[in-house]
Every structure is written in C-alpha cells, then in structure tokens.
Amino acid sequence: MSTTLFDKVWDSHVIRKINDGPDVLFIDRHLIHEVTSPVAFLGLKSRNNTVLYPNRTFATADHNTPTINQHLPVQDPLSVNQLKALEQNAAEYGIVHWGLGHQKNGIVHVIGPENGITLPGATIVCGDSHTSTHGAFGAVAFGIGTSEVEMVLSSQCIMQPKPKKMRINVNGKLGFGVTPKDVALFMISKLSASGATGYFVEYAGDVFKNMSMEGRMTVCNLSIEMGARGGIIAPDEKTFNYVEGRLFAPKGEDWNKAMNYWETLKTDEDAVFDKEINFLASDIEPMITYGTNPGMGTSISNYIPKAESVEGGVASYRKSLEYMGFNEGDKMIGKKVDFVFLGSCTNGRIEDFRAFASIVKGRKKADHITAWLVPGSHVVEAQIKEEGILDIITAAGFELREPGCSACLAMNDDKVPTGKLAVSTSNRNFEGRQGPGSRTMLASPLVAAATAVTGFLTDPRTLLINS
After folding, report:
1. Which residues, in sequence order, are CB contacts of 252 under 8 Å at separation 6+?
2. pLDDT at 466
3. Per-residue confidence band for 305, with pLDDT thresholds at 50, 70 and 90
4. Which pLDDT band holds residue 180 (cuts at 50, 70, 90)?
5. Alpha carbon distances (Å) from 254 to 13, 121, 169, 261, 393
6. Domain co-membership, 100 together with 241
7. How would you class 116 by CB atoms within 10 Å of its CB: exposed for 0-12, middle for 13-18, buried for 19 or more?
C-alpha cells in the first residue's frame, strides 16, 4: 500500500493505538526552554517521577532572556527564576543544558538543527508552537503544552490524535527578490490563518526542492500560522549534507545505517492525501501583512483589500484594520515604519542576515528607525562576524544584539512601544504580540532591510536593482 512521508514517520513511532482515541507516540527528541518547562518539572516531582531518557532531552534558554549585556546578571525577577529553574532541573536530571553565555546557546529551533539534534525521520516535540520548524528535515515535529512536556519527560511518549494529511505543491521558479518567507506568507494568505487546521502539511514541488535548508525551516516554521499541526519536507542530498558531521548526528557505521533509512523517507508516487493544493511560483511576490493575523497578507505592491472581498466577518476585519491604523484600499508601499526586527526562529539564521546585508550594504539606516538585529544563536553570531556581515551592518548604522527570541513575543525587554509600527521577520502579528499596543507587519529579511534604510515600507526589488 502506498503511503505518505508523514504516515511513514508517524506510524513507525506508534507504541499503541487507542480505539476511537489518540495514538501513543514515541518521541525521539525533546527540546525544552525556560518558560514552559519549570511547571512540568514541578509536576514530575510531585508525582515522584523521573526523566526516563535524559539523553533525548535538550535544554536552552531563549524566550525570556535579554539580548544585550548577557554577561551581566539578568535583572527581571521572573526571568531569573525561570533561568535558574531550567539550569537546576537540567543538572538534577542529567539533561544537556545550554544557558546564557554558553557557546551553543540560542533559540531552541535554531540550535536543534545546528547541533544535529534534528534528524530525518525523527519525532520531535517542544513546549513551543513553532516546533514545526524541524519538519524541514523530514521529521514529524510539533508543539506541545506544559502537561505534555511533563508526559514526555516521564515516559518519552505522548498521546496524540493522528492529523489528516495535506500536500501543498508549489511549482515553477520564484521571481526576483522573492524569498522562502514570501512563499510561506503567500500560502497562508491563500489558505487563511485556519485553513490547514487538523492537517499535517507536506510541502512539495520545484520551489521546495530548490530551496536551501534555512529556507525550508522558515516555511515549516510558519505551518502553524495557517492552523496546521506541522509541516514536513522530504529529506534529500541537501538535508543529508546539512546534517552530516554535526555534534549529535550519527557517525561512522551508524551514519550509514541512518542513511539507508533516510533515503526511504519520501511519499510514494500514488499515495493519497486528504487534501491537495497547487500554486505557481510565478504568482508569488514579496509579501507583507496588514492585519492582526498572518493570514491577512498581500503582495507588497498591492492595496489593502475591501472588507467585502475578504472571507470572514466584515466587523472583525475592520476592527483589525482599525487596530493597525490602516484603511481599506490603502497602498502598502510608503507607509512610515518605526521599528524593524530581524530575527526569531523564523528568520534568525545566517541566510537571513546575508539577505539583510545584501540590501543595507553601502546604505545607511533611516534616522527615525529603531532596528533590532538578533541572531538565532551564538553560532549564527560567529558566522555574521566571520563573513564580514557585522562590518557591513555596522557601517550602515545598525547594531548586532545577542541571541534570543527577542521582539518576536516580547517576553523580554525588546518590546515595541504602544502605537508604533514594526516590520518584523518573526511569525505572528497578533494584537500586542511585540508589546502592548504595538502594531506588526510580517515580512521577509529583504523587505525588512529595504524598510530599515528608507524608513518607509519599501519593495526590496527596487533597491536590489540598484545594488
């Protein structure tokens, strides 16, 4: 019987099937951080349980951490308590822990792939919704809640209903200045922020085959923003080359055995999906969001749609525009922007900083723009310095901050002030997501860079042409 890639990975990890209920799924890799793990460990202790397989869990500090002066004591009491709890729990149970200042510290969904923790064919969970990022490697990866974090710690299993299967095919060649972030925002704009609810999405077609691993991670990261349980891309030579030699990747004969399995991880030719959608790469332009969910997006050269032309409630649509300070029919290009954020588990990798630098090189940051450039890890930070990118952005008037989730969710000091408008390379533009009363437009690193040097929402293609 022909099966999908998702079926192959999921079914091979089912420990027990419950009639008319969820599957009991074995978890290969468990990633934890300082925000969702402390309560899970308290639950573990209250039941006199222990961590079953500490070598399968990996801890890093990222969400509620400063991105400047990390060598100094953390000032926020909540953050101090969370960081201390993570360090103590990891030490008590023998879990690998990369805290602030550690050379391997960084955003959980950046350090996993960097260190070979993320592997093809694996099941991966974390107490964070954007765990879907790891699906870029042909893994079944999804976010879980705090009680489920405790469940995985104690049993290395989780109870989950098996999602339905969707495949999104994007064929053809992407246009000039169009990035993986634009591909993801385009798909979300077409499906809506809930259009893939109940599904696990496989991405297939020319565009994803030609995409870098960093780009695939960006796409899979945003799967959750159209309601999907996760996203997955079949592993190929790019995947294997990326993984080989990394710290926790298989070595020697174990690598050969792993490759024999990994090369089978593809959807069979006549496998059937519950839903299949096709897009053309030529229809995708640089994207921008204009509302308060990631589905409210459009090509940057377009105008904000009229309420009557958009599916859903007119009242809620207009309420969203009112919060943003926008109007139906507004032109997107030219809107004055206050903040620019480059970073997050969506766009905090070296490829994103290369893209940003390609536009700001030889130019200057607009005087009124506040820019936060935050690498996803210390490894990325080191690459930025080694490749001369730091020199480029410094000459353009930008400063590089230290790794962390930063302004993606504003659990730290990096908060966009009330009423200010930000172009952000992160994943969510909900009301107040980047700070109480803040307004967010999601975009690619190229759009962020073009906006940062002009001070207004700018089509990056106009600056790339002149570069």
Report:
1. none
2. 60
3. very high
4. very high
5. 19, 15, 33, 11, 42
6. yes
7. middle
| Residue type (1 letter), 235 | P
pTM above 0.85, yes or no: yes
Asked if 226 and 193 count as a contact pair (C-beta separation under 8 A), the reply is yes
C-alpha 232/C-alpha 220 separation (Å) is 7
Q: Give the β-pairing of 297-299 and 287-289.
A: antiparallel
**What domain range includes position 131?**
5-161+237-261
Q: What is the pLDDT of residue 206?
A: 98
Q: How many domains does the chain have?
A: 3
Which residue in this structure is represented by tokens 């024999």?
A: 260
Q: What is the pLDDT of residue 100?
A: 95
Query: Which residue type occupies 281?
Result: A
Q: b/e string for 73-82 if b means 16 or more Cβ within 10 A?
A: ebeeeebeeb
* Distant-in-sequence, close-in-space partners of 366: CB < 8 Å, separation ≥ 6: 452, 453, 454, 455
271 and 301 assigned to the same domain: no
Query: Rounded distance, CA 357 to CA 380, Å?
Result: 14
Looking at the fold, whether 246 and 277 belong to one and the same domain comes out as no
Residue 330 tokens, joined: 């507004």
In whole angstroms, what separates CA 156 from the centre of its chain?
A: 24
Same domain flag for 217 and 243: no
Q: Which residues contact 345 (CB under 8 A, 6 or more apart)?
A: 107, 108, 109, 110, 130, 133, 221, 376, 405, 408, 427
Task: Assess contact for 303 and 331: CB atoms under 8 A.
Answer: yes
CATH of the domain at 401: 3.30.499.10
Residues 370 and 438 in one domain: yes
Beta-carbon contacts of 98 under 8 Å, excluding residues fewer than 6 positions away, are 58, 59, 60, 61, 104, 105, 106, 111
Beta bridge partners of 143: 126
403: CB partners within 8 A, 6+ apart: 62, 67, 105, 106, 107, 110, 348, 374, 375, 376, 377, 378, 380, 381
Residues 150 and 205 in one domain: no
Beta pairing class for 14-17 and 23-26 = antiparallel
